[in-house]
Amino acid sequence: MEAEARTIDLLNQIRERSPLIHNITNFVVMNSSANILLAVGASPVMAHCQAEVEEMTSFAGALVLNIGTIQEDWLQSMIVAAQAANSRGIPVILDPVGAGATRLRTDAVKEIMASSSISVLRGNCSEVLSLASDVIKTRGVDSSLAMSAATVDAAKQMAVENGCVIAISGEEDLITDGERVYRVGNGHPVMARVTGTGCGLTAVTGAFCAVADGDLTTATAAAFGYYGLCGDLAAETSDKPASFQIAFIDRLYSTGRQAIEGRLKIKAV
Amino acid sequence: MEAEARTIDLLNQIRERSPLIHNITNFVVMNSSANILLAVGASPVMAHCQAEVEEMTSFAGALVLNIGTIQEDWLQSMIVAAQAANSRGIPVILDPVGAGATRLRTDAVKEIMASSSISVLRGNCSEVLSLASDVIKTRGVDSSLAMSAATVDAAKQMAVENGCVIAISGEEDLITDGERVYRVGNGHPVMARVTGTGCGLTAVTGAFCAVADGDLTTATAAAFGYYGLCGDLAAETSDKPASFQIAFIDRLYSTGRQAIEGRLKIKAV
Amino acid sequence: MEAEARTIDLLNQIRERSPLIHNITNFVVMNSSANILLAVGASPVMAHCQAEVEEMTSFAGALVLNIGTIQEDWLQSMIVAAQAANSRGIPVILDPVGAGATRLRTDAVKEIMASSSISVLRGNCSEVLSLASDVIKTRGVDSSLAMSAATVDAAKQMAVENGCVIAISGEEDLITDGERVYRVGNGHPVMARVTGTGCGLTAVTGAFCAVADGDLTTATAAAFGYYGLCGDLAAETSDKPASFQIAFIDRLYSTGRQAIEGRLKIKAV
After folding, report:
1. CA–CA distance, C262 with C256 (Å, rounded to integer)
2. N or C: which terminus of chain A has fewer CB atoms within 10 Å of its end residue's CB?
3. How many other CB atoms sit within 10 Å of the CB of residue B99?
4. In Å, how far from its chain's centre is CA C96?
5. Using CA of residue A47, residue B80, residue B100, residue C72, what is the dihedral sign?
6. What is the DSSP string of C110-141?
């Protein structure tokens, strides 16, 4: 149970060290992402103004970027912050919300990734695959076929091309650094009926990576496993979205070793 | 029970078709409106940047505009989006939050309505009546007298002048297209103690109109009836605001035909 | 029990008069601050656009400024609104979120305080002390030593220098106008695991000050005592953050004289 031990260890470290997670995220989820990070044990800060992002990143254990309600000045702040994070060597987690849906969003992600190094790219299948290079796309990946063999191949190649972890949320999640591949089976369908659940996972991935001391692939898999497991457990309390969300955040706060042992569905494949 | 059948049919269609509702709304309610739309069964997207609103609207089943924390660039985006929605023929729902309170807000609504066609204008009595033309105002409407005969006349004339549905929330709601008039008696006083309840109704009206195939007047009445009924039912769980809100969103998710039958207070008058 | 009578009286006045509280606050807490103010009985409005802040302040009983996600144009709006509030003689409550952490934030607070009169400055110890003048700082205040004798002296001198109430949240809170000093012992540790709890207290302080008719020092102490007590009571329902927050807002709504009597920990020292 290597993945289990890794998850418990990282979770404990988050709770002990309470890393500052610098978020430049969208208006919809600022509140929920902050509460999710606090529940897990991290210290969230939201700061988007170009005049302060470099300074704020200098205190942080990880930088989380999310383009959900992107506009030009925020994009420039994300780039400045990402470059500052790169020069300090802290992880940068990027959530390409809506990439592929509008040119603004697709281009924003590409601009961030062209001007800085991203550590983890976390999105759903269509968002992530919309960012694949032409080389990958010409192989005929169908983004509606979540987790097909072609998707896995595309994700692996994207990881190699960008030197980052690719993390795709779905019924079963996929995490790969181009070499290792993990699948995570935790999580509950009602999570899709609560806004910001995916964005919250991106933030929590930031917290796990902040204390990972290097291996971000297993840290990302651990974040996915833990987050999904808390969803599984919360769904035992309620499967209706609003009361589920309350139970879920409570679970992110209260779930520890005992509830984790034997329940993570993280598989190396 | 024509209104009942219409409500159940539209609700089922929302849940089957999951229409994308494009919201350009205020900072206060972005999260709650998204959760409310998800609970009802629609797919919310929040996107305000002028560079993408036209593209985003092109995927949407309805456009919801809300001036709650308006600023100049957002107003311009609303106008661009409304014009795109008009050219595609999808419904545009406008919530004139705070119209009448400041010139900025009153003027913003007037600018939107002068440069595009609004399908439904939903607000409280003073907000809506602050937008009445001078012709209507000189008849001496007193906006503090909610739902007086003079209010109904003013609302009907506003509907005709603007070619839209006028929907006024109050103890008893008023929906009119200038000819037909509906009153809706569902809803609970504690809803006024939860921020974004009115804005959430505007968003849900968008979802009902997105699947209405034409008749937006009955779709608006259906949205009001359903939303208010879920409030009635949630208040049986709790009449305190925060726990009420949780029960309310859960109810928006779980309420179907069985709970609706015999409980809607929608009257054609 | 002077403080108790004062708290109950102000609370009753908020519920009777429902003062409009004009907030220019950060994106993270807009929703929660609005719900907190509604629960207490006040009428919140969020409006940040420079074109309307002066007009909006003219209707308000208090102005609440919060620099949590500050950017240049919002700062200018805060200054315009604060000056409008000053000329009308209504209280201005300022929350210096993150002051001391970045130059942008420290400078923003200093610019607001240099260009207008603040009635109450409410923050945590390090935020508030980061704003102390060089005269005070050279005395060697250690902001990590919350509520040390040196902190109390610094707070008193800051109150005198700025002609305002200094209100510092901590395990035990400190409120001083330079002469009188109050300590408040209500409140529960889980409050620190819910985002916006401090910002919500700043907003509630605005509501208490809006009906205080002059003595803002005791009004601030009353706000702290009431808010902390509702936290104490809510923690009896749940000590996990999300369900705590629901219970807390419900308590802010339902707590009255009976639950208050004998439970406030407000001490004049």
Report:
1. 12
2. C
3. 25
4. 10
5. positive
6. HHHHHHS--SEEEEEHHHHHTTS-HHHHTTT-
Domains belonging to chain C, first-starting first, are 2-268 (3.40.1190.20)
What letter does residue C95 receive in the DSSP assignment?
E
Which H or E run includes B121?
strand B120-124
Q: Which helix (H) or strand (E) holds C220?
A: helix C216-237
Q: Which residues contact B258 (CB under 8 A, 6 or more apart)?
A: none
Question: How far, in Å, are A169, B28, B160 from residue C23 at the CA level?
Answer: 37, 11, 37
Touching B: A residues 52-71, CB under 8 Å: 68-71
Give the pLDDT confidence score for residue B147 in this predicted structure.
73
> Residue C189: is it exposed, middle or buried by C-beta count within 10 angstroms (0-12/13-18/19+)?
exposed
Quick check: A45 contacting C, CB < 8 Å? Answer: yes
What's the half-sphere exposure (Cβ side, CA atoms, 13 Å) at A18?
9
pTM of the model: 0.97
Q: Are C64 and C206 in contact (CB under 8 A)?
A: yes
Give A103's contacts (C-beta < 8 A, 6+ positions apart): B51, B52, B55
Beta strands in A120-257 (DSSP E): 120-124, 165-169, 173-176, 181-184
Which residue from B6, B96, B81 is spatially nearest to B50, judged by alpha carbons?
B81
Q: What is the DSSP letter of A20?
A: E
Q: What angle do CA C192, A13, A191 make, to 5 degrees?
A: 65
Note whether B241 contacts C27, CB cutoff 8 Å: no
* Sign, CA torsion C129/C130/C134/C138: positive
Measured between beta carbons, the chain B residues lying within 8 angstroms of C34 are: 28, 195-196
Tokens 């991290």 — which residue? A42
Question: Tell me: the pLDDT tens digits for B142-154?
Answer: 555 557 888 999 9
pLDDT, residue A1, reads 52
Check CB contact of B144 with chain C, cutoff 8 Å.
Answer: no
d(CA C9, CA C4): 9
Tens of pLDDT, residue by residue over B15-45, are: 999 999 999 999 999 999 999 999 999 999 9
ipTM score assigned to the predicted complex:
0.96
Residue A84 contacts C where some CB pair is shorter than 8 Å: no
Cβ atoms A122, A93 nearer than 8 A: yes
Average model confidence (pLDDT) across chain A:
95
DSSP secondary-structure letter at C99? B
Q: Is any Cβ of chain C less than 8 angstroms from the Cβ of B214?
A: no
CA dist list (Å): B123 to B97, B137, B166, B173, B187 = 7, 17, 9, 10, 15
Question: What residues of A are in contact with residue C103 (Cβ under 8 Å)?
Answer: 51-52, 55
CA B203, CA B42: separation in Å to the nearest integer? Answer: 10
Phi, psi of B225 (to 5 degrees): -65, -45
Residues in chain A, pLDDT under 70: 1, 138-146
Residue B242 at interface with chain C, using a CB cutoff of 8 Å:
yes
Residue C184 · residue C227 · CB < 8 Å: no
Residue C147: pLDDT band (50, 70, 90) is confident
pLDDT at C58: 96
Backbone angles phi, psi at B76, to 5 degrees: -65, -40
